[in-house]
Write a structure and sequence with these properties.
alpha+beta, five-stranded antiparallel sheet, about 45% helix, globular
Length: about 90
């Protein structure tokens, strides 16, 4: 999942923090910044959100055990990205 933006890195990171807060609350995901990459994890899900000056990219590996909620996770992330960065 990718979104283009014109916020710069610092403002984009703040927007990603908002997205991560909602995802943490909904899916009990742990997250921490490593440079400009927000690493997130929970049992059965590992991924990251990479922030550059012009883009935000999300990558997640979801185990087969969580396939029933894969769509919900993707939908929530997409919805919050659209809210913060536009579609």
């Amino acid at each position: 999942m990718h979104r283009k933006h014109q916020l710069g890195v610092a403002r984009a990171r703040k927007a990603v923090d908002k997205v991560a807060k909602h995802i943490r609350e909904r899916f009990e995901i742990e997250a921490a910044w490593e440079n400009n990459i927000l690493e997130f994890t929970r049992a059965g899900v590992d991924g990251h959100i990479a922030v550059t000056a012009e883009t935000v990219s999300v990558h997640a590996d979801i185990s087969w055990l969580l396939l029933p909620i894969k769509g919900a996770i993707e939908s929530e992330i997409g919805r919050y990205l659209d809210q913060e960065f536009g579609s």
